[in-house]
Amino acid sequence: MKSRLKLVSLTANEELTHKIASYLNVEVMQSQITHFADGEILFEGKQSFRGDNVYIIQSTCAPVTERLMEVLICCDALKRASVRSITCIMPYFGYSRQDRKAKARQPITARLVADLLTTAGCQRIVCTDLHAPQIQGFFNIPVDDVSALPIYYRYFKDLNLKDPVCVSPDHGGVVRTSKLAEKLNAPIAIIDKRRPRPNEAEIFAIVGDVKDKDCIIVDDIVDTAGTLCLAASKLKELGARHVYAAISHGVLSEPAVSRINESALEQLVITDTIPLPKEKESPKIVVLSMAELFSRIIAALENGESLSNVHKNFASEHYSD
Questions:
Q1: How far apart are alpha carbons 180 and 159 in whole angstroms?
Q2: Which residues are catalytic?
Q3: Which of 12, 59, 7 has the alpha carbon at shortest distance from 29?
Q4: Which residues contact 213 (CB under 8 A, 6 or more apart)?
């Protein structure tokens, strides 16, 4: 496995990459991202990649477009360096919220990004909790959408919550919420939410019994945290004992952290698909790592093994009591 496997870290997920490398017992390849005076990006590999299976690890988080360009430029450089294969491990797939035309004259940017990655030379994508599963259909290359659900299950199981209920932040998130609820043997509640414009929401009602319950809001992205904090406040008004949130991608744009600190949330539990900088750390924010799962997936891809078995085994380990 070690002879052809090469890990490349761009600027977004250096800590996660080194954790993955540690699990795999391989080194992160030496490379450098530099910028021209006008901001133009240059990728340079400091070692040979000829004939190697290269895994680029990069979330397209803020600054989203710059991080995306790094991936595209890196793919092109590797392709021209005669690599054997290019796999993009994109723990957080940016532009995923633009997966359809919600209004006239809007783009479907998730499809555009899929085309760009394929054209650049990427041959496989591995993501975590895509905003919409159908985004996999935008690609003509294999896409693996990895769930953080087993990690969340183990965390909340260990908290020994009293009468837990899993809360979907909208009608579209019911399937994701139901999966965690099934494993925790808990009921679900649904928030009737409307968005008059991006990053703004209005809550009309909550369907389900939350009185004297420990609520877990389940979602894929927390951005400015306005909706999340509004939901937590509403749940507390309706008699919820404690309110937690399990959200895969902590985008946490301003003023998210200050809102969370002042909110009714007990804890916001996220993964390290997007790195949490020091200035955004908070006693209310808990970060769980995806490194072990990604390392198992990379090892399976390298050895030609079933990814279904990887997910099944990882889940069974975390779901076992």
A1: 15
A2: 193
A3: 7
A4: 163, 164, 165, 240, 241
- Burial (Cβ within 10 Å: 0-12, 13-18, ≥19) of residue 308: exposed
Q: Which residues contact 64 (CB under 8 A, 6 or more apart)?
A: 94, 95
pLDDT digit string (tens) for 256-287?
999 999 999 999 999 999 999 999 999 999 99
For 234-255, how does the pLDDT look when each residue is reduced to its tens digit (9 = 90+)?
A: 999 999 999 999 999 999 999 9
Is residue 217 within 8 Å of 245, Cβ to Cβ? Answer: yes
CATH class of segment(s) 149-288: alpha beta
Instruction: At 309, list the tokens.
Output: 């078995």
What is the DSSP track for 58-74?
A: ----SSHHHHHHHHHHH
For the chain, give the number of residues: 321
What is the pTM assigned to this prediction? 0.93
How far apart are the C-alpha atoms of 78 and 50, rounded to whole Å?
Answer: 9
CATH architecture of 5-147+291-319: 3-Layer(aba) Sandwich (3.40)
CA-closest candidate to residue 165, choices 187, 185, 183: 187
| Residue in 144, 156, 202, 158 with CA at minimum distance from that of residue 181 | 156
